[in-house]
Amino acid sequence: MRKIAVINQKGGVGKTTTAVNLAAGLAACGKKVCLVDLDPQAHASLHLGVTVTDQEQSIYDLLCSDIPLSAVRRDISEQLSIVPANLDLAAAEMELAGEVGREVILRDRIEAEPEEHDFLIIDCPPSLGVLTLNALTAVDEVFLPLQPHFLALHGLSKLLRTIEVVAKRLNPSLRLEGIVLCMYESSTRLAAEVSRDVEEFLQASASQSPVWATAKFFQTKIRRNIRLAEAPSFGQSIFDYAPNSHGSEDYLGLAHEVLASEIAGQSSEESVAFSSN
């Protein structure tokens, strides 16, 4: 099972949109996907039409009570499920403050159950607190959605250092897999300039840490599209709301690119194993 955290501490960059629609895109490609909403705003849950009532369990109960992942997971379709959130999750930061091993609770809950999914995708909160640390400890890959804006580099170095510290102390398999450009407008010079600046920053800092040394820009760019903004209000992914839109085309392209990288990685491992024999 591939475990991916979608993270950016800056809000409004397409983080939740990417988490939800990448998960839905992979599910549309026949993969079994579990989306984990780890943001107290619960936007990923609302995006898929899921609202948690006071009588229902959520990711908060998973983190703060001794219950299994399967007890809070809900099926959206045959291939896609979600572990939903609500505002109660905001209290988890304080409630977990005194817990021993609070950074690895989510990892332990995931590892306690057999792997039923091909992908587990976590929509992280726009902060670098205990919830985000739980996500980074539980996954192997980090996807970074980025808007081509003049403030795109602001905070990027801090985020990379956070990933590096978690990799050193808690999760040695963690790495920054790639950057997804969202709200992209190819006709603007700013988009090209910011993309180049971020790419140069990554290349210049690649030698500083193996955690992001192989990070790449995904070739698929998510174009600015009004249908992507409308879909959450209907409680649907872009594939259900507007299957013929640019947004659907772009996120399906991203899903194919993620799957292609998986095949390439497996081929590389098989080649190494063959040569060693």
Radius of gyration: 18 Å
Question: Helical stretch count?
Answer: 11
Spans of at least 5 consecutive residues with low confidence: none
Helix content: 40-55%
User: What's the CATH topology name?
Assistant: Rossmann fold
Largest sheet composition: 8 strands, mixed
| Number of distinct beta strands | 8
Report the top-level CATH class: Alpha Beta
- The SSE order reads EHEHHEEHHEHEHEHEHHH
* CATH architecture annotation name: 3-Layer(aba) Sandwich
How many structural units, i.e. domains?
1
Taken as a percent bin, the fraction of beta residues is 5-15%
Describe the strand arrangement of the main beta sheet, using strand numbers.
Answer: 3-4-2-5-1-6-7-8
Mean pLDDT: 88
Tell me which oligomeric state these chains represent.
Answer: single chain
Can you describe this structure in just a few lines?
Helices cover 42% and strands 13% of the residues.
Provide structural commentary:
The chain is of the alpha/beta class and 277 residues long. It has one domain (2-276): P-loop containing nucleotide triphosphate hydrolases (Rossmann fold, 3-Layer(aba) Sandwich). It has helices at 15-28, 43-47, 59-64, 92-95, 105-111, 130-138, 156-169, 189-205, 226-230, 238-241, 246-276; strands spanning 2-6, 33-37, 74-75, 80-83, 119-123, 141-146, 175-181, 216-217. An eight-stranded mixed sheet has the order 3-4-2-5-1-6-7-8, with helices on both faces. α8 (189-205) links the parallel β7 and β8 (216-217). The longest helix has 31 residues, at 246-276. The protein is globular.
